[in-house]
Design brief:
Elements lengths: L18 H14 L2 H6 L10 H32 L2
């Protein structure tokens, strides 16, 4: 799959092939093309957002990281003070 282009996966039923093997082939092709990973990955980038919404999302993500770092540093500091 080329980055930035939609992936079109097509499988057709071969003569004498069962539905299960057709489905298995389809899933195998999807895994090879990393289609499922792209769909379910965090922060799905294959979606359009207005600029204002992108800014808001960035601010929220930065705030979340800041809080997590704050909590980590607080835990580190509290552990150090116990042993002093």
């Amino acid at each position: 799959m080329i980055k930035g282009r939609p992936a079109l996966v097509a499988v057709s039923l071969r003569k004498g092939e069962s539905q299960q093997s057709l489905l298995r082939r389809f899933i195998k092709i999807c895994k090879k093309e990393n289609i499922l990973e792209e769909i379910f990955k965090k922060g799905n980038t294959r979606r359009y957002y207005k600029k204002s919404i992108k800014k808001r999302m960035k601010r929220k993500e930065a705030e979340r990281r800041r809080r997590a770092e704050e909590i980590k540093s607080h835990k580190r500091n509290s552990r150090k003070s116990k042993y002093v």
